[in-house]
Design a protein that fits this description.
Blueprint (H helix, E strand, L loop, with lengths): L15 E8 L2 E7 L4 E4 L5 H10 L9 E3 L5 H4 L2 H5 L9 E4 L15 E4 L4 E4 L2 E7 L8 E7 L2 E6 L7 H7 L4 E5 L4 H6 L4 H8 L7 H10 L7 E5 L8 H13 L6 E4 L9 E2 L1
Parallel strand pairs: 3-4, 4-5, 5-6, 10-11, 11-12, 12-13
Antiparallel strand pairs: 1-2, 1-14, 2-3, 7-8, 8-9, 9-10
Length: 272
């Protein structure tokens, strides 16, 4: 993996993060410094991603890289069109060596930068740690980003929270974490039983209860902002997520701001 040096040295000491989308309908997050612009996953159409970036004052054609967590459609449906939108250049796509062949590239394959899950690499002035997560994909990973003295972590699409992941996200200033389903709503919801078993399984998705337990016992005191996302539109509700998370936070002396990423809507822009 080579080191990508992008843009002029120096620049503004500002880090911007926006969860453009976080649900089973599509996932994408934007992270930028004064020098480097990264998209994590491209699970919306190119038109929608560009529109959501434009709404926060960003040009999608100037992206320096697209990072992919895994090959599921809600994370890659807009990947190829987005990789091609860099004008004469292909926006490089960073993904694991095992995930790469699991994506149907068709007639166009962008510039691919493959890495091993668990490796660390640098894009511009952002250092990126990748780490394996338990999910029913070929080689799923999550990421932590270090820049300007900050640490931002995004962990979604996982069935449980092993100690290894808790260690990886420790020290995060901003943590984006999945709070996918309410167990009672899932059990009586419209999904077939086989799908319910998958969601509840160790390679499925996190429940509100698991996330609340993490907040009570493991959320780092350094985390100033906790964003809960990937909320199921059929088996959860933002109000339930917010209530349970606040109850967990109330049991600790933390100065953590809670933000719930609603399905099909971008979050605010977090600026550091």
């Amino acid at each position: 993996m080579r080191r990508w040096r992008l843009g002029p040295p120096g620049g503004h000491a500002i880090v911007k993060i926006c969860v453009l989308a976080s649900s089973s309908a599509g996932n994408s997050t934007f992270i930028a410094t004064g020098r480097t612009r990264i998209l994590v996953d491209a699970g919306l159409s190119r038109k929608e991603i560009l529109a959501r970036l434009a709404a926060i004052g960003e040009d999608g054609e100037t992206l320096d890289a697209i990072l992919i967590t895994h090959e599921h459609t809600d994370h890659v449906s807009g990947l190829i069109p987005m990789a091609r939108c860099g004008g004469r250049r292909s926006i490089p796509v960073f993904l694991t060596t095992l995930t790469s062949p699991a994506i149907p590239w068709g007639e166009y394959t962008p510039v691919l930068e493959r890495f091993q899950a668990g490796s660390t690499f640098t894009i511009g002035d952002i250092e990126i740690d990748s780490f394996t997560i338990p999910h029913d994909a070929v080689d799923p990973v999550a990421f932590s980003f270090r820049t300007q003295g900050l640490k931002i972590s995004q962990v979604t699409d996982l069935g449980y929270l092993p100690d290894s992941i808790k260690i990886h996200v420790s020290g995060s200033d901003l943590l984006i974490l999945e709070s996918n389903h309410d167990l009672d709503m899932l059990k009586v919801g419209p999904y077939p039983w086989s799908v319910k078993q998958r969601v509840m399984g160790r390679n499925g998705h996190l429940s509100n209860d698991v996330v609340s337990d993490f907040i009570r016992h493991d959320l780092d005191t350094r985390t100033s902002t906790l964003v809960l996302g990937h909320i199921s539109e059929h088996n959860n509700h933002p109000a339930i997520v917010e209530l349970m998370a606040h109850q967990a936070l109330d049991g600790r002396t933390l100065f953590t701001r809670l933000v719930v990423a609603e399905p099909r809507r971008s979050t605010e822009v977090f600026v550091y």
